[in-house]
Design goal:
Elements (H helix, E strand, L loop, with lengths): L6 E3 L15 E4 L5 E7 L4 E6 L4 E6 L3 E6 L5 E6 L5 E5 L4 E5 L5 E5 L1 E2 L2 E2 L6 E3 L5 E4 L23 E4 L6 E5 L5 E6 L5 E6 L11 E7 L5 E9 L8 E3 L5 E5 L2 E5 L5 E6 L4 E7 L5 E6 L2 E6 L6
Antiparallel strand pairs: 1-24, 2-27, 3-4, 4-5, 5-6, 7-8, 8-9, 9-10, 11-12, 13-14, 14-15, 15-16, 17-18, 18-19, 19-20, 21-22, 22-23, 23-24, 25-26, 26-27
Bound molecules: magnesium ion.
The site of magnesium ion has 10 residues, from strand 7 and strand 17.
Length: about 300
């Protein structure tokens, strides 16, 4: 347990979202770069990626961490669709893949306009079954997190795929490097992280907020919140419509108005997070070489 300096309380409302007597627990360590945490309530199971190791790990409360998938094609973001299926972004095969209940895998997206995707990074599935993902170039910049290659796409876009993977649309095309993404509780807003400052300090480290219409088209896209330490990567929305976002010094929590309420301070750079546990009130945090958890006074929507 790590108790010292766990919280930075910026607004008093933040006290309602945490248990100030709860510290971080380090669940697993010795990894290279952890990402893509996803919780499966039917199995009380957490999955997460270690991208440079090209593995997916599983973690359970009683069993600890072990290898779930040995050759994961440099998997990054994972999510659970409304039918409880795993959907994964792969840098290696530059694709988004759904694992069916029988274990077979269906490619949802691997090319756009006849050209290969860059390296799908993070993914979320809307309740209508549409699959939304970001496609920055991180997985093809070097051989660390995939296979080095020249981008074929003209930019790093955000895509929406139909549930069967037959139709793919570029829904946002003006990010430098889009990264994590999450819908508001009513799914009428989509938050997307801009992580382009990883390679260009001129790019603002912001979350942008888009309005989503009934046909799944986006509008708006104004800057919603700024990350004041490092850059935003993965993010999640809780049942109260607060936004929990990764940053260099921990997890930053914003209200739906965009106000920074407080931070959960983590001793390693945070890449992503998800809610889970038997009550839904455990926050799992993938942070560099480790995975942490902490009980919070909120939960996923
Ligand atoms: Mg990411």
């Amino acid at each position: 347990m790590i108790f010292s300096q766990t919280y930075d309380i910026i607004r008093p409302e933040f006290r309602d979202l945490i248990h100030s007597n709860m510290g971080l627990a380090r669940l697993s360590s010795g990894h290279r770069w952890t990402e893509g945490p996803v919780w499966f309530p039917a199995h009380n199971l957490l999955l997460f990626s270690d991208i440079p190791h090209a593995r997916i790990y599983q973690w359970t409360e009683g069993g600890g961490a072990s290898v779930y998938r040995q050759h994961s094609e440099y998997s990054n973001g994972n999510t659970r669709d409304p039918n409880g299926r795993l959907v994964t972004c792969h840098h290696g095969s530059r694709s988004v893949v759904r694992t069916e209940h029988d274990g077979t895998r269906q490619v949802i997206a691997e090319s756009y306009m006849g050209k290969r995707l860059n390296s799908p990074n993070d993914v979320v599935v809307r309740s209508d079954g549409s699959i939304w993902f970001t496609d920055p170039t991180y997985g093809i910049l070097s051989d660390l997190e995939g296979h080095q290659a020249t981008p074929e796409q003209e930019g790093s876009f955000v895509y929406r795929a139909s549930p069967d993977g037959q139709a793919l649309s570029a829904v946002v095309t003006d990010f430098v490097q889009p990264n994590g993404l999450a819908f508001s509780v009513d799914e009428n807003r989509l938050y997307i992280a801009e992580s382009g400052s990883s390679h260009d300090p001129e790019v603002p480290s912001v979350l942008r907020a888009f309005d989503v219409d009934t046909d799944g088209n986006l509008s708006g896209g104004q800057e919603f919140a700024t990350i004041d330490n490092g850059l935003p990567d993965g993010l999640r929305v809780d049942r109260h419509d607060n936004i929990w976002c990764s940053a260099a010094d921990g997890v930053h929590v914003f209200s739906k108005a965009g106000d920074l309420l407080g931070k959960i301070l983590v001793p390693e750079t945070v890449a992503n997070l998800t809610f889970g546990g038997t009550r839904g009130n455990m926050l799992f945090i993938t942070a560099s070489t480790s995975v942490y958890s902490i009980f919070v006074n909120s939960a996923a929507a």
